[in-house]
Amino acid sequence: MKNLLSAAQMREADAYTIKQQAIPSIDLMERAAKAFVQVFMQEVTEKDTSIAIVCGPGNNGGDGLAIARLLAHEGYSNCEVFLASFSAKQSDDYLINLARLKEAKIAVTPLDEVARLRKSEATVIVDAILGSGLNKPLTGDFLALATLVSELNRKVIAVDVPTGFYAEGQLSHYNGVKAELAIAFQQPKLNFFFPESVQALARFKVVDIGLDQDFIASQSSRWKLTEPADVARLLVPRKNFSHKGTYGHALLIAGNETTMGAALLAARASLHTGAGLTTVCLPQSGLIALNTALPEVMALPRTVDLSIDVFDQFNAIAIGPGLGMETENERLLEQIIGLKRPLVIDADALNLLAKRQDILAELAPGSILTPHLKEFDRLFGPHENWWSRVATASEEAQQRKIVIVLKNQYTFVCLPDGEIHINPTGNPAMASGGMGDVLTGILTALLAQGYTVADAAVLGVYLHGATGDELAKKRAVVSASQLALQIPKTLQKILKEIK
Ligand SMILES: NC(=O)C1=CN([C@@H]2O[C@H](COP(=O)(O)OP(=O)(O)OC[C@H]3O[C@@H](n4cnc5c(N)ncnc54)[C@H](O)[C@@H]3O)[C@@H](O)[C@H]2O)[C@@H](O)CC1
């Protein structure tokens, strides 16, 4: 798991690297500028593109000056450099890079008046005004310049972060630069994973600038980013001489008259994630559909006199997809929670728990809740922004000793030990009905196979998103059925990486 550090910790990593590698800060800036230029050249391939590089007074601006020199060296012949130093004190490395730029006979234009930038005909703007040194809201000339850069409506590529963007903490009332791309140094900023970042950037790329990896790994941070190597380590290959009993029996309590599809989707996902056996506990009216669509899956008809002992045979139990909010389902949920076993709780089961906080309090440790934004707020109260929502999710996960999978483009997996694992896979093509049901099926199948709750959650969420990413390479929209069918291919791909 990649340790994601705060901006303050990153500054320490910076200082440590400078000391440990005996690399002067100006050389680290050169490394960062080179790494930026590598990616920039993939993004802006025409060397005669007119480019405005707008540089602030600190090290972000210093990067911008170094980038201008390196771009000229690479043959970008149409660059203008604007200096937005205003009254702030310039950093030492900024001044060194300004001198280097002058030595290279590259002209600079001081922006004594912000509006001068308006005359630029550049089609690409490199935003190097303020970076991670931002320590107060934008005002005055900086605000005017950030506003102008956005208003000009050019392709804006930000150095490290868009000007005015805080690396962490809530982002409401964003008034900074709106960038098409941020090329960030060393690690993604935490706020890139929060939906509010859409106000500041459309996408980001991360470039390695060689900060000390051991130092980064040794820092204490509850934020982790799941990486392909992590899932390859977690995934256990199927064993020789194994049989269906080896891979557990998953039960999905799901489906209702008009929402039987949810049960089928969850069951399909469980089947294709490799549960040895999958059973769906569904209303009588769903039996034909189940037997026709999924002959491998067994049925447990959901009748009022269902004996509670029947649940003993299952290794993992999920409840919720398409369940319905009827009183008998509320009663069933109460009975299932009364088993005092870890459960996967999704969809209508979450909505029922929102009404019945008394049963929620009885939930067994080791359970997994998989709410999306609305389900989460119904359960734990309204939240004004995602920082406070994730904070609540983490507190609830710790207090109740459960896992909360807070679904989002980048899903937050909040563990009972306080760690928050950010999942990098998944894409907007997956934003359609039934996707959550598939995730529930995946998680239940992994639990049935004996994965720990934390591993099942981290692995399952990654697997779900990675499968969607693979499908989205060739499709604008990915359906839940397609995704469920594709899971074995993702598993195979990960397993091949292990070899
Ligand atoms: N390891 C790293 O973190 C590296 C960082 N580098 C660059 O250094 C940047 C950070 O540089 P700095 O710390 O010099 O800071 P910035 O260049 O982001 O900001 C410059 C200064 O502006 C002032 N300031 C902050 N908020 C302001 C506001 N709202 N209005 C007016 N002035 C404000 C602060 O005093 C700040 O130090 C990074 O974003 C990155 O571009 C790179 O050079 C290489 C290595």
UniProtKB/TrEMBL annotation:
Per UniProt, (6S)-NADPHX binds at: 59-63, 131-137, 160, 262, 322, 372, 437
The record's annotation in InterPro entries points to: Carbohydrate_kinase_pred_CS (IPR017953), CARKD (IPR000631), Nnr (IPR030677), Ribokinase-like (IPR029056), YjeF_N_dom (IPR004443), YjeF_N_dom_sf (IPR036652)
- Work out whether the entry's keyword set contains NADP: yes
Which NCBIfam families does the entry link to?
yjeF_cterm, yjeF_nterm
Q: Which family does it belong to?
A: In the C-terminal section; belongs to the NnrD/CARKD family. In the N-terminal section; belongs to the NnrE/AIBP family.
| UniProtKB keywords | ATP-binding, Isomerase, Lyase, Metal-binding, Multifunctional enzyme, NAD, NADP, Nucleotide-binding, Potassium
Which SUPFAM superfamilies does UniProt cross-reference here? Answer: Ribokinase-like (SSF53613), YjeF N-terminal domain-like (SSF64153)
PANTHER family assigned: ATP-DEPENDENT (S)-NAD(P)H-HYDRATE DEHYDRATASE, ATP-DEPENDENT (S)-NAD(P)H-HYDRATE DEHYDRATASE FAMILY MEMBER
Kindly provide the name given to this protein in its UniProt entry: Bifunctional NAD(P)H-hydrate repair enzyme
Question: Could you say which cofactors this protein requires?
Answer: K(+); Mg(2+)
What exactly does this protein do?
Catalyzes the epimerization of the S- and R-forms of NAD(P)HX, a damaged form of NAD(P)H that is a result of enzymatic or heat-dependent hydration. This is a prerequisite for the S-specific NAD(P)H-hydrate dehydratase to allow the repair of both epimers of NAD(P)HX. Bifunctional enzyme that catalyzes the epimerization of the S- and R-forms of NAD(P)HX and the dehydration of the S-form of NAD(P)HX at the expense of ADP, which is converted to AMP. This allows the repair of both epimers of NAD(P)HX, a damaged form of NAD(P)H that is a result of enzymatic or heat-dependent hydration.
Q: Which residues make up the binding site for AMP?
A: K407, N408, Q409, Y410, T411, G436
